[in-house]
Design a protein that fits this description.
The structure is a homotetramer.
Chain A: H1 7-17, H2 20-27, H3 34-45, E1 63-65, E2 68-70, E3 74-76, H4 89-100, E4 103-106, H5 114-120, E5 125-129, H6 135-147, E6 153-156, H7 166-171, E7 180-181, E8 186-187, H8 208-216, E9 222-227, H9 230-238, E10 243-246, H10 260-271, E11 276-280, H11 286-294, E12 299-302, H12 304-336
Parallel strand pairs in A: 3-4, 3-12, 4-5, 5-6, 6-9, 9-10, 10-11, 11-12
Antiparallel strand pairs in A: 1-2, 7-8
Chain lengths: ~375, ~375, ~375, ~375
């Protein structure tokens, strides 16, 4: 087993195993990667005010997500083409999720088909949906997800266009021939750039009305992924959405989009319990999960760290990631005086550190000749 | 074609082609270059709160500027002596502007005369005016601009004195003999320092009354360039000015002048639609343009990046700069849920990030012995 | 005598003498060590507004703590296993404390027993108590502390679980066989990891009711160590607690817990004189002590610097640490215009620098291509 | 003449000429030198909002200080033992001050006596007074200053004790035998540490009553140097003080004392025209002078830059420093639209940048594993 003692250390292990361009494809963000960095940094800036003299001899991390019991308030975020990182791809992730008792959110762009993944492991699973221009294709995918026992549809709404992935442009990224998109029945040929296959592109005309159509063709609860504006979370709930993922697509779409941590609090206040709120982006520590819940999230989604675990050690690596996060959350809850998930509240956030502080300046006041100590 | 994937990467290409002192002359700012750096940094600090579930299948970047249709809300800022960067100078820029469908603002200090530039390409064009001590010379220039079809006069008001260009002082900058100032009918001799020709100096007595005189001698709409104070923008509009460029001369005049991004919002609120507001300084990304419009600008002006494009690849380089910015703006509008320019509004700015935040300290609290992680 | 001119310079001296893993064990914090760094940095950020034209020819640093006179408002914080740093361990510290006229707070996990330390030097002394699962063992320890003349019980309430000491994990830290825990009658064997001895673990079920039990078995005044939330300080006082140490365990338990400096002011306002308030964490300068008192503390506790003094030079090193701090405090009081402890007040804090400012961002807005000066 | 293009560049020239310990003695501050750095940095953080369309063809920097005309609102701050930097010491400074038309404030601890300096050059001059324990000695000094034509007494009130000059301690600083203190009739012997001569120490019992005594023995106007608290500036004026220097002794006394720039605004508001306000500390640019005046100062004092000029080039160096500052101020006034000193007002400070902003955090949120761009 690896010597990594925390989630971030897995990144270095993964980097050793991956080609630079595949590593960059996973690690990178859009444009200047400001949102990518801010997603992590914003969690780190929040200060906790722990509670003491509470019996924490038995901490219980269990909660429910859309009514289903899970071992901890953590889900695995949807990420495409996992087989590029490890031959077992999303099947390895599925087994690790089952072992940890958490929900896997499978990507439309997964290497293995949703049926293959469902066959790989039991355990609750959601399907992340890209809405295609071809509605029949969209409907077919929804029906397959229902048939395979996926418990919810998680519709991505923040990617009507590709972000400016400059690392990939500089690397002239090409996926190897044979790269699969299991759900789409597609295997890339030698000269084919998988990302150029326009018939699999998300539909840029996706709008609120499309949402009604989608709700009409499925009995699965609908979760929207990619909301940052509090008003829009409210609108979504008014239209029957059961959950909202506060997300900026891991910093891969619109650069300088607000960090999810800084958007979460307002979204939670606006939705005010009428639907479940989740958040992804930059979660690397048990204290990050604690802060997300304190700010109103029901659970977090973790993406890149699971990819690093998968690339480094396959299923065992993903298990280790989830174990580390579970243990860190357990310790954090004990030290914060919250033995049960339901006791985590806004009171844990130190006064003045609520997560939507004014933006901070880069130190441009630094003057060439001024000593900086 | 170059391998540059964004505007900033063109700077390195240009630097390779230029002598260090000409590079410094373009790149430098005044004194400690605090405003120079802040102009860029301030845009980067604003956070966006994108809108979702809007049909963005057809984004339209077109807008009007003083009633004239342009392909996108971007203009080319006036910069002098472009032939020092490329033999075709402002004529190459003119052709690139025409190709991109944007307005070129020609500098009084251009290498090629305003007639030569007008002959080089069609397309809308403004004339940037320095107000000379010699009013007859000023009037003659205005009349030539009118005759050559320039659509507006853009009077620079923030440069009654030269800034402290310490790079140039250290470099003992001399322009080569033969350096032209086309509009002034001047070609520098071997021993002549072009910047010392006092008869071309802007008039330091330029005041509000001079403005009335200027309006009296021309039918062209007047735009003031170099306003930062909201009250003065209001005064200008009261005096019949049709447009205001929020500018600090690219950080080349008064150091520690407020970043244009941080001045824009107040100016726009004060003018409140009675004139058009533009902004320059530090625009390097499509998201910067989006933010400028969200804060109330009708368009932005881009200066140095066009110079880098020109130095690196001539007309093709300027075209590439404009294409990159257009494409980035298109992607940003799609990802922000604003398929048309008119839908860009203050709502896109994340709460608490309105662009005139409190100043931030350099970390002088850093103590010699304190680890910084 | 060493050449160290201030407290921080002793750390380098100590580091030379200690094995890397023992150094790390002392120096380290939990997880990303954000709270560890913030504890120091937060004091440095507060700005003083000194008073002038006060007769400071005779500065008096004396004060009382729980009614007992001490030479200055500084105590020695409890730290375990001091014999790992110097053979004389807590006995050397006791002698230095006596010489300086300050209170030593002895740790439950001390190398030497509380009786051995009491025999080593006169002078006021408190006993830091970990509440064990075995109440009889807890009671026995309390009775021994009473019998040996300890003047107060300082109950640690912020450590119901171990923090994430990643330095120790990476170092695979093992204490040498023979490592003593004097109060527990334990000497570690060759294969035994002292930190794994579960019967000495603090009781994670410690709660407010346990506090009542503890107060019932001792006549010693009770001080709680490890409070950050102002409401809980109020609750503690309502239950008869005589003192509260605003502490986050030196950044060793819950990472991103608020810096003690930033929590102190609210705690002091809430308690409002009904009990004494102390603070530890990051005190390295006389001005830090001055600020703590200005924000409402009666005294500070100093931990790591005493360990560095002990490791570097034994008793003489701890004496030197206390002398330096005393001299710095004397100078600071003179320069601040406060010749007596009682004259130190909130008025010394510069307006706008009260110690619970909004959190500051890391400069994630720094863009790859933006020069930083 | 040197190639230095601004004040800061003179520091490097001086450093080449001076022994490291004398350089450190001049350059250093107290303790962690936080105030030393903040003094400069705080000016850099203020943002200007220049005014335009004002006739600035004739900028006039002249003003009056305590009723006397000076060429610009800049004075030379008192600094001791100038002959350690250049053989002509304060006499060279006096000649440069006369040439520039500014006031020299001579230090009690000057190398040359106040009579020698008065004989060296005409021009207005103040005498900086340390109040000695021996009142007769104090009175004698005051009478000599009156007799020699000094126009004001500038009493230092912020140094009742030495700061923690750790650079000097580390350097084991000894001044060479023969070091003179001209005003005190003292020449140091070979084994004598000049700073240890206790009879020249300022009186730590100096208080408000001493001020009354001092006013009773002289007809010279009294200026207090070293006030940061607005209330105390008010008290001083109530007691007949004619001027107040907002100062923290150049960061050499109480570390983390508030930067003078951040204290100035409140002092000026409190005094509200009843006395003149001056400021020193960190002034390095013409824009710093402009900001000081905008925040309410009548003039600034410049210390270290004059020392660097003196060390580098003697009288010519000090003249060059004053010329550079004058030229920078002239340009700044022109670019700010203020052709006369009286037109500089708070309106120049950009909204939200008034100089007493909240303190800023060092970026302790930086996490080891988080990329910083």
């Amino acid at each position: 087993m690896s010597s990594a003692v925390n989630l971030r250390e897995f990144e270095a292990l993964a980097r050793e195993r991956l080609s630079p361009s595949i590593y960059d494809w996973c690690a990178g963000g859009t444009a200047d990667e400001i949102t990518l960095r801010e997603n992590e940094a914003a969690w780190s800036r929040i200060r906790l005010c722990p509670r003491v003299l509470v019996d924490v001899s038995a901490c219980n991390l269990g909660t429910t997500i859309l009514g289903r019991s899970v071992a901890m308030p953590v889900m695995i975020a949807p990420c495409g083409k996992n087989a590029l990182l490890h031959p077992e791809g999303e099947r390895a992730v599925a087994r690790a999720a089952e072992a940890a008792g958490v929900i896997q959110v499978l990507s439309t762009a997964s290497s293995f088909s949703l049926e293959e993944v469902a066959a790989a492991a039991a355990g609750p699973r959601w399907f992340q949906l890209y809405f295609f221009r071809d509605r029949a294709a969209t409907r077919a995918l929804v029906e397959r997800a229902e048939a395979a026992g996926y418990a919810a549809l998680c519709l991505t709404v923040d990617a009507p266009s590709d972000g400016l992935r400059e690392r990939d442009t500089r690397n002239r990224l090409r996926f190897p021939a044979g790269t699969r998109l299991g759900n789409l029945g597609h295997v890339a040929g030698a000269d084919e750039h998988i990302s150029e296959l326009s018939r699999f592109d998300p539909d840029p005309s996706l709008d609120w009305a499309s949402l009604d159509w989608l709700r009409g063709i499925t009995r699965l609860p609908l979760v929207l992924k990619g909301i940052l504006a509090a008003e829009e979370a409210g609108l979504a709930v008014d239209r029957g959405v059961k959950g909202v993922v506060v997300s900026n697509h891991g910093g891969r779409e619109l650069d300088t989009a607000v960090a999810t941590c800084e958007a979460l609090g307002r979204v939670a206040e606006t939705v005010s319990g009428r639907a479940e709120i989740y958040v992804d982006g930059g979660i690397r520590r048990g204290t990050d999960v604690l802060k997300a819940l304190a700010l109103g999230a029901r659970a977090v989604l973790v993406g890149r760290p699971c990819l690093w675990g998968l690339a480094a050690e396959g299923e065992a690596g993903v298990r280790r990631i989830l174990e580390l996060l579970c243990e860190e959350l357990r310790v954090s809850m004990a030290l914060a005086g919250c033995p049960r998930i339901g006791e985590i509240s806004r009171r844990l956030i130190a006064p003045g550190f609520a997560g939507w502080a004014l933006p901070q300046s880069k130190p441009a006041a630094q003057v060439a000749g001024v000593p900086n100590g």
